[in-house]
Every structure is written in C-alpha cells, then in structure tokens.
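Lab notes, practical 5.
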Amino acid sequence: MSLETLHELDRETRRLFIAGSKLARGDLRLTKLLPAVKKLGEASPVFARVAQAVELTLGAEPDEADTRLLDLSALLHSIMHTQGRTDVPGEVSPLEGADSFDYGMQPYRKLKPVIEALTVKGQGRMEVIRQACEEGTVRDYRLILPAIAALDDSYAEIPEIAEEKIVPGFGQAALPALLASFRPDGGKGDSRRLRLIHRLQGEAAKALLLRAAEEGSPEVRAAAVEQLGSYADQESFLLAQADEKRKEVRRAALLALARVGTPAASDRIYRAFASKDRELAVEPIRLCADEELSQRAVAYARTVNENMAEDAAKSEEAWAPIQSALDALGDRKSTESTALLKELFSNPLFAAHAPYWLQRTAGDRLTDDDGQDARSFAVSLADNNRGRYLGISLYAAVRSMTPAEVYERFSKYKVTGKRKALAESMQALLPTISITMMREEQEEPFRLDPRWLELFIEQDELEVVTRLVGDFDRPAERYLLTKCEAKPQLAEEGTVHALLALFKIGSKQAPDMLMHVLAAGQRRTIYYLSPEQRYLLGLLPGSYADKLEQYTEKLHYPSVREQVLEIVSELREKPEDGSGGGKGIVEWIKQRMY
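Output from the prediction step:
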C-alpha cells in the first residue's frame, strides 16, 4: 500500500514539473494525497519527512515553488529506490540442462545483440548471428531460450541456422526447453522443434513422433512421419501415410520409406513415381540405396520415350516423366541410364519437340558419362540434327581423342552449314579470356590442336580466337590488332577481349593499341568500368601511368575518372619494366568486388 501511494505521489510531481512548479501551491491532487502520506508517516519517520515536504510544496510562494518541488521529487526517488524487490516469487530450483552444459562466461554486452537478433524483427540480424556462430558467442546457456524462440522466426534463414547450428550446439541442455515449448498443433517452428528433439533423444523420442504423426498439425505430422524413417519397424505405418490426402504428408512418407529401404518401401515409391505423385518420388528415389528402384524409374522413362506419339511430343507434360527419371538418378550412372540417353538423342521427336531444359539435362548427363560407349555415341552426334548436338559431340571428343584426331574429325564443319555451330561449340568449350587471365588459380585447359587458331582467324570468329590464343603468334597478333583498329571503343566487348589477348600473347604493341583505343573512343559512352576493363587498364606498364592520367582529364563522368585514377596509382607502384602481369590491379579489383 505504501508503494502505491508513493508511486501516485511521484506521478503528480511529474505532472507539476510539466505544468510548471508555480501551479503546485494549493494543488488539489497533492492536497488529496496528503492525508494518506501523513498516515504513513505515523509508522515511519521517513514517510513523515515526505508528508512535511508535501506540505511545504503546497504552501510554497511562487519564488520558492521550484525548489520545494525538486526537494519533494528527490526525496521520493531516494525512498522508492530502497523499496524495490530483488527476489523472484516461487521456489528456487536448479536450471534444467545446466548440469550437462559448459556455461559460457561471457559479458552480457556481447550477448545482448545476439539475443535481439534472435528474437526481435529488423535488418542486419543474420550478419550478427553468423558472426556470433563464428566467434562461439552462441555457446552460452543464456541463449538457449532465444535460440529456440528463433525457430519460429518468419525470416527463413534464421530458423534454419538455429536448427542446424545453434540449438544442436547446446546438446542435451536444450532438450528441456524444446520439450516444454513444443506444441503438436503448431506450425513450422514446432516441426523444427520435433526434429531437434528426435536428434537429441534418438529412439527415446519414437513415442512422441508417433503421437505427433497422428494428432499434430499438417507441418508437424509431416516432420514426424519423415523422422520415423529411421525405424524399420514403422514400415506399415509409413506405407499407410503414403496414401494420405495431404501432399506434404505423402512426400514425408515417401522420404521416410526411402530410408527404410525394404522391397515394399521401394515398390511404393515406384508406384508414386508412375502416378500423379511423380514429383514427390524424385528425391526419395535419389536418396534410396536400392539401385533397382532407380533402374525401374529409368525403364519407365525408356518406355515413355519409346511410345511417344508425334502429337503428344508437342506437349511439355509428355516429356516430364523422362525429366523426373533423369533428376531421380542423381550422380548414378549405369548401362541402363546410358541406354536411355542414347535412345533420347536417337529419337527425332526429342530433337524437334523436347523442352530445352530436358535436352540440356540429357546433354549434361551424356557428357558427364565417362563410359566408352557413352563417349563414342556422343562423338557420333555431330552429324545429327543440323549441328544441334555439335557442342556435346565436341566436348566428348576432346575428352576421349587426341588433339589431332579432334581437329581432323571436326574441322570439316568449317565449310558446311554447321560453321556457326562449330564456332559456338568451341566457344562453349573454353572460358572467356577475361576469366582465364583473372582467375586466381589457373585450371588445366583442354589440349587443342594449334591449327584451330588458324582456322578461326580465317573464319573471323574473334571471340573464339581470343579464347584460343596462348603463346605469341604473329598471324594472331595481326588479326587482333586489326580488330582493335576496326572498333576502337573501350565499351566494345570484342575490342576489350582482343586487347586482353594481345597482352596475353606478349605483343609489344598491346600498350600503344590500348592507349589508341582510349584516345579514339567516345568517352561519354563510358558510364563505369567493368572488372575486365579495370583489369585491362592494370596491364599497362608502369611507364604509361602519366599517359593514362592525361586521359582521365577528358572523361565525362567523375566516378569513372576516380576509377581510372586509382589504376594510375597502381601503375606507379609497378616496377620499371611493367612486370607483374597486372596482379596488383587484380587484387585491387577483388578488394572492391568482394
């Protein structure tokens, strides 16, 4: 009762501070509280002082009202700070889980940002949590409840990292809080709690899983059913769940059956693959250890391809079972899967009507197949379907034939209707020159016959030529210089690649040609420098720094001028001979890109 009176008196003094201390004289509200304060004063001298201060304030003259009001407020605050409670109601008991956890003795100032990131909405939270994980700040018992609360967060990445890294790091210490907060009728957050409970308890959580699978919300049921795949004795229950009305429960049941791995489980997954639930069965087939199951899926796809009618082939849906079968294979390779690929590429309807994504998937699988049968077939595709599969064929050839054999086999297409397809296929085979030169770790390139360079110079395929150049070659130098002279524009990608190629082969004319391109080009069309343009300018010898600085004076956009001036500074740090191959500028680019 005394605290309530004091709090009310404090509110009235605050009101008078806002309204003005001169209004305190004879204030009705203070006058109304005075008897209650006097009554408290009968029990304690300190409250008598408060009553006296109230009387002095009520009777204060205007020139001393502010002093009296401040005295009353100071006395009130002093008393109220001594009247607080530090104990917590209830019986004191040990912290659950604390006995099995190494308590993190960290200052609260380090924990507070992490707690807020886990529990409060706002931007930048993910970065705080990632940093806490890297530094080990999350290994603190005081973060268990915030981490478990984060399982319900609406920002997908936060509950994911909480489930995968933070909560499991607490081990058994997190189990009591997980069990206490788990609600079978909850949403995604509770499905995550259930998975964590099973992860920590193992088989001891089976009863909870069964109860959640029968009584829980759709999300919780799906999580429970999927976890039951760890127990072979639940096969009959999982088979029944695979016929559930809810799609998410059927999917979870199929995933669980893939882990059970019995013949009955595999048969049920295959029946789903051959039905309207085909997409739900793709991942279970890929995860299942039963090789026969994946072969049955391949056989199904071969049957679909064999029976494909021309009218049906025009529909993407008709090809969907084949795409699903290829997706279900994962990294598996077999004679049956190779046979499927050969049959697809031999089917005229596949080339004419199959969706691009399916042809791309099949092509990637064929080129990744290391079997001699698959490679020989891929090489033979060059003459099929007007060069549509020339890229697949060329890729297989460079992996299985000598450089001279590849040239003799494919160079003939330079004079046929497949000339453009040949250039595009070679272009797809090799990385761009900017990637090659800027790559931190050089990869071993395909070994190609040197005659290819001469052929593509003759065909005037600039992009392919820039990807093929290696050591110094006089005809290549002449060709590249001619292309730069024809389009002296730094904004022209072909010109930039040609200049990079000149530097790569060690042409002594490369620096002067680059300066010529800069001088002749339209400066107003350069809005910013791309990474490859910055890299190119960084290849200039150090002696060209002054010339490049003069070029900046005529640039239209200040942002571009600043970029070029930074490169000028890099050039001035180079040795006199300009050695270093632009490595300094590469590091400069990386610092600003990453």
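Observations recorded by the TA: The domain at 124-291 is CATH 1.25.10 (Leucine-rich Repeat Variant). The radius of gyration is 38 Å.
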